[in-house]
Amino acid sequence: MRAALLFPILTVCCFGQTPVILISIDTLRADHVDAARAPNLASWGTVFTAAESQVPLTLPSHTALLTSTYPWENHVEENAGAVPAGAVTLASVLRTHGYRTSAFIGSIFLEKQLGLDQGFDTYDSPFAFGAFSKLSGEMLFAGRGSGYTARERRPGALVLRAANQWMAAHKAEPVFVFVHLFDVHQPYPLGSYDAQVTATDKLLGTFRQTLKDSGWWDRSLVIVTADHGEGLGDHGESDHGYFIYESTLRVPLLIHWPEASPKLPARVEQPVGLVDVAPSVLEYLKIPQPAAFHGKSFLNLSPRAVQSESVYARDSFGWSALRSVRSGSWKYIDAPKPELYDLSRDPKELNNLVKANPAQATAMRALLTRPASPAPPTRAVSGDPQRRKEVLQSLGYLAPGPQGAVRAAADPKDRLPLLLRYEDALNQMAARRYDAAIATFRAILAADPGNLLARRDLGVALIEHQDFLKAIPELQQVAAASPDDYVTRYELGIANEQAGLPRQAADQFELAARLAPEAAQAREALARVRGKRTSGGR
Fold it and tell me: Which of 69, 104, 205, 247 could form a Cys-Cys staple with 40, CB 3.0–4.6 A?
């Protein structure tokens, strides 16, 4: 079938110096961008009604967006990861073609330590963290004080103000500006998701007016999208990252074209992915697409299979990973209990058609691919997998796979009640109801003994309850199966120290400090217990 051309006369135009402004609104569901809740965005420009995220987590999704590679290709599948050194990004390509490149970041989840700053002349990201948690995907401040609190976000108004100031100083140059807004992400400062959407829409309405007043709007390509959506209770998921239904995968993709562009459609219904954004920008600018980009430009609306995944349930709980593919109105989810949906008839994915239409399910499953790619260059940050492995080997440990033990992978759908109980336990911990949290964690482990994250957090709860000797064996089990989790090592050190075992504590703090050299917390703890040993401790 012949592909539709979105730009029928691009061959006679040249947009090579067009300013490009790419705005990502973290956690914005596509179906909440309407005239009632987001009137400014609803009138932005061309609307792509079937744009899909490649993974419903902040860092992996933005990596796919800016590198035009799938998570299993770039090896950034969790927030606790790092973009490989030498990655080819949209920013790096545009910089080689004379663009001044800048990014203005709203959250620690895109902090420059994670590697997405590659290709940017300016990367305005006023955050820092000290350590990763491999199991939970957390980025931990790990500094003085509690060690688990940090300034994780800045208001969108400040992000946009910084972007405006930079653009005013570079008005005579071709620019690429990336803006990341985090205001729609939990916890919602204004109390509800939709209130936060409306407030962010107003910010962007003001930003658009500023672009008009300063002469940027008419000559710029301005793209608004999101990294992922939000569950809001759909399929039992309150936030995002666990499932890969459309509530968290379908994102807004809105494009304002420069005044000189040909007349363009108001709506495009062809499914596209975030991996397709960077190739589309380059085609618009008449810049060749690098071989490293694996997306397809949507200026040429050729049919495509859009793939997505979530490995959070696998890496955190030892359950199955989820992978999906969308082609036309059909969507297939590969899981122990596979799912097939016709989104044109069933947009909320309530009627699984696998049994009713097995031939279509088979055809869709055949579209799932994991292209072979070389191992990424290592990156010297605390989250780099190769570096963690080297540290563990140097200390006599050998890291196994994601969960260590081999066991049957449960379908995340079947484990949803346990996930909800786990979230209850975390809320109990936050309220310092440690007895209740310990009981909840133990109930989870009775049903799912291999659940490492629940067992690790049980150990933490026992420490908070001052049951140090009970915490040690729980944390030792986790460390044996997942030896490169910083939190496990640090908390095991605390449990041993408080139990009067400074030598064992020192061993754990040393490993934690070497896994995360930026974590002052672990270094200070190691110095503390070494002082106890030299003064006569065991």
Answer: 205
Domains detected in the chain: 18-305 (3.40.720.10), 394-534 (1.25.40.10)
The owner of tokens 């209740």 is 436
Residue 500 backbone class (left: φ over 0; alpha: ψ -120 to 50; beta: rest)? left
CA distances 313 to 130, 320, 405, Å, are: 24, 6, 15
How much is the CA Rg of the chain, to the nearest whole Å? 24
Average pLDDT rounded to a whole number, residues 297-326: 94
- Tell me the C-alpha to C-alpha distance, in Å, between residue 109 and each of 117, 150, 154, 192: 12, 12, 12, 22
Q: 537 to each of 492, 504, 531, how far by Cα in Å? A: 18, 11, 9
Residues 6+ apart with CB under 8 A from 33: 41, 42, 197, 252, 254
**Distance (Å, whole) CA 126 – CA 237:** 31
Per-residue pLDDT at 403 exceeds 50 = no
- Helices (H) and strands (E) counted in the chain, each on its own, are 18, 19
Q: Which amino acid is at 230?
A: E
User: Tokens for 413?
Assistant: 């759908």
pLDDT-derived band at 481, boundaries 50, 70, 90: very high
Count Cβ atoms within 10 A of the Cβ of residue 344 and give its class: 0-12 exposed, 13-18 middle, 19 or more buried.
exposed
| 387: CB partners within 8 A, 6+ apart | 378, 379, 380, 381
Provide the whole-model pTM: 0.90
- Work out the number of other CB atoms within 10 angstroms of the CB of residue 168: 11
Question: What are 390's two structure tokens?
Answer: 């080297």
Structure tokens at 213: 């007043």
Q: Is the pLDDT of residue 2 over 90?
A: no
Distance CA(235)–CA(231), nearest Å, equals: 8
Question: Under DSSP, is residue 232 helix (H, G, I), strand (E, B) or coil?
Answer: coil
Triad 104, 110, 116: Cα angle to 5°: 85
Which tokens is 426 given? 């975390």
Instruction: Say which amino acid occupies 505.
Output: A
With a cut of 50, say whether residue 200 has pLDDT above it.
Answer: yes
CA dihedral angle for residue 98, residue 99, residue 100, residue 103, rounded to 10 degrees: -150
Calpha distance 385→379 (Å, rounded): 9
